[in-house]
Request: fold
Amino acid sequence: MPILIGDIAPDFTAQTTEGEIRFHDFIDGSWAVLFSHPKNYTPVCTTELGYTAKLKPDFDKRGVKVLGLSVDKIEDHAGWARDIEETQGAALNFPLIADDGSIARLYDMIHPNANDTLTVRSVFVIGPDKKVKLKIEYPASTGRNFDEVLRVIDSLQLTAKHQVATPVNWKHGEDVIIVPAVTNEQAKDKFPGGWNELKPYLRIVPQPQG
Reply:
């Protein structure tokens, strides 16, 4: 069965470039990003891992742990890590799982229309409650947009704390929408500065702070 948003992320134990981990222990009350790679020494993956390493401070600032996965052997990861640092100008600074295919199958990452081992470029964002908050899949030929992953995490963290939703193309600091479940009376308490009511169901308010 495919993993859906709201499902508990399946737990697993794996060997990584930073030692053995148990996924639920690795999360340990934090947010997490798990993203897969078809195999080592592939060009698009090399650019993705290098860019994600450069974004590590941005993930850390948001309390997000990053975990990569490649369906390849642990002894091959070190050489690939050297290539990533050499070509992308950033050293691998988060764990990279060596998967025998079992985790890829557990997370429904296998691309059966390509072959029985190739993973699609899957991204899972998982909350501190260990539930899947976001899943994105790209074809193997298309590099992912990790700036977008950060943008969505900003939205997920904001909307988990406040009764708001984020509009199209929203970025951190921009106006948000009061969710319909909040009545105008309740909104007066939650948003004492007021809001702009374009329609009864579309109430725009500055992004809550804190």
